[in-house]
Description:
With 157 residues, the protein is of the alpha/beta class. Helices cover 28% and strands 30% of the residues. The chain contains five helices and eight strands; from the N terminus they run αβαβαβββαβββα. It has helices at residues 3-11, 27-37, 50-57, 110-116, 147-155; strands at residues 20-23, 41-47, 65-72, 75-82, 103-107, 123-127, 132-135, 141-146. A four-stranded mixed β-sheet has the order 1-4-3-2, covered by helices on one side. Strands 5-8-7-6 form a four-stranded mixed β-sheet. The radius of gyration is 18 Å and the shape is globular. The mean pLDDT is 91.
Amino acid sequence: MNDANESDRSTYDETVFNHVGQCTTDLDLATRFYCELLGFEAERDLTVPDEAVGPLLGIEPPVGLRAVYLRRGGFTLELMHFDRPGNPDRADRLFNEPGLTHLSLSVVDLPDVVSRVADFGGEVVVDLGMVAMVRDPDGQLLELLPMAYRKRLDARP
């Protein structure tokens, strides 16, 4: 192992989280949903050249990828939009399908956030008072919990 790898290993001796990527049919609507409703902040906006991303993602040109990176605390969500013909439509995934099932977020005022989901293009699937399951404008499931839940987890030894 060379010196550069030794240095990297001592700095990053475990796997670290970078981001979660999510495809969207309407990038502006999805960005508004996450930023204005859930308090994410837009970090960067990229238009990626087809020749760079096509082979990586296994998508034939034209790819037309534009990505907006949103940040909330230490979590980064990459919203991706492919401006090209033939993209699949929205699909409401189920919990028992293989792959990532949902994102779970704690919010300060759960009843207020749930009451405004439809105003931002989303849908309330079920609201049990202390937890709600909603879909974002593209059908992605989000579990919404009160901030008290997160504080309880953070207080554990």
